[in-house]
């Protein structure tokens, strides 16, 4: 993998991780408030961001034969 591609992957991951942290916080806040509609909306946003990371990683694997980053541990 080229250095430019590695930088791009790091930047992409960094941006989406920040968005993911905010989405996780929104889910926690909505749950704490007991707002089912807001909880569902925040959870959908979080699931979409996780899917975006997985799609990018899978596409990179198919195109280049390597993952752009290690697969995170799922609990």
Give structural notes.
The protein is mostly helical. It has 2 helices and no strands. It has helices at residues 3-33, 36-64. The protein is elongated. The two termini are 30 Å apart. 5% of the residues are buried.
What's the SSE pattern?
A: HH
Quote the beta fraction: under 5%
| Low-pLDDT windows of residues | none
The residue fraction in helices comes out at: over 70%
Number of strands: 0
Q: Helix/strand-derived class?
A: mainly alpha
Instruction: Give the N-to-C terminal Cα separation.
Output: 30 Å
Shape: elongated
The main pleated sheet reads as:
none
Short summary of the structure?
With 75 residues, the chain is mostly helical.
Question: Can you lay out the helices and strands and say which pair or pack?
Answer:
Layout: H1 3-33, H2 36-64
Helix pairs in contact: 1-2
Features:
single chain; mainly alpha; 75 residues
């Amino acid at each position: 993998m080229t250095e430019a591609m590695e930088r791009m992957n790091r930047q992409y991951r960094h941006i989406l991780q920040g968005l993911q942290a905010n989405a996780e916080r929104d889910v926690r806040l909505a749950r704490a408030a007991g707002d089912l509609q807001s909880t569902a909306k925040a959870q959908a946003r979080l699931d979409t961001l996780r899917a975006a990371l997985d799609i990018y990683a899978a596409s990179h694997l198919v195109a280049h034969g390597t993952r752009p980053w290690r697969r995170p541990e799922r609990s």
